[in-house]
């Protein structure tokens, strides 16, 4: 084998190693992106749940205000020993 062929083979091997390194990096990044996507989806579901819960609390509070006889104040019943 000539020096030129040895040099060419050495360069090919170097390029193959670089390709493998790049493929490894891409796979790691894809895995990281999937993990981040899963976290974002979970957080969005939590935000949606909390938004619905806040809306229910708001409606409940408005209902309590509407039920009170003194125009918006929530009636407080004193315990019998007072």
TrEMBL record:
Keywords of this entry: Coiled coil
Coiled coil: 5-53
Matches recorded under InterPro entries: SlyX
Name assigned to this protein: SlyX protein
Phylogenetic lineage: Bacteria, Pseudomonadati, Pseudomonadota, Gammaproteobacteria, Cellvibrionales
């Amino acid at each position: 084998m000539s020096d030129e062929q040895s040099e060419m083979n050495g360069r090919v091997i170097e390029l193959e190693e670089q390709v493998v390194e790049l493929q490894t990096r891409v796979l790691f990044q894809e895995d990281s992106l999937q993990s981040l996507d899963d976290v974002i989806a979970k957080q969005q579901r939590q935000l949606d749940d909390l938004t619905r819960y806040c809306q229910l609390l708001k409606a409940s509070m408005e209902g309590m205000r509407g039920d009170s006889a003194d125009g918006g104040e929530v009636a407080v019943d004193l315990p019998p020993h007072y």
